[in-house]
Amino acid sequence: MPGAEKERQMSPNMFKWRFFAAVIVLLIVLGSAGCKSSLPVKKEEPAPMVRVEVHFTSDSEPLVGFMRSLEMDKEGMIMQGGSSFYKLYDEQGNVLAIFNYSRVEYIKVLY
User: Fold this and answer.
1) Is the CA virtual torsion 92, 96, 97, 101 positive or negative?
2) DSSP codes, 29-43
3) Beta-strand (E) ranges in 6-103?
4) How does pLDDT run across 43-55, given as a tens digit for each residue?
5) Which of helix, strand or coil describes residue 53?
6) How much is the average pLDDT of 34-60?
7) How many other C-beta atoms are found inside a 10 Å radius of the C-beta of residue 90?
């Protein structure tokens, strides 16, 4: 029976491989479980709405609505060649119109 005890003993290499496999399985289980961050997320507040009257270069009627700001913001988009697109909103923040800034003659701020 002394030979049976030798067969039951684990070789150092086999122990290392089993330990390595157990660590990998543990990492996979912990990684797939996910985690929730308890760090507070700072929400960026939208710019205040400004009531404006937009007059275009053509003889069309001016548009009256609200703009988030009178300068280029994150929602605006600059295209190659300089033309820009802006959004005009109603009082509730719904988009009324999107217009090309290069076609604007002037914007009048209404108080």
Assistant:
1) negative
2) HHHHH-----SPPPP
3) 50-56, 63-67, 77-78, 84-89, 95-100
4) 777 778 889 999 9
5) strand
6) 77
7) 13
User: Which two tokens mark 2?
Assistant: 């002394």
> pTM of the entire structure?
0.51
User: CA–CA separation, 84 vs 22, rounded Å?
Assistant: 58
- Quote the pLDDT of residue 64: 93
Q: What does the block give as tokens for 29?
A: 């289980």
Place of tokens 């390595």: 20
Alpha helices in 34-111 (DSSP H): none
Residue bearing tokens 């069309």: 60
Q: Which two tokens stand for residue 106?
A: 């002037």
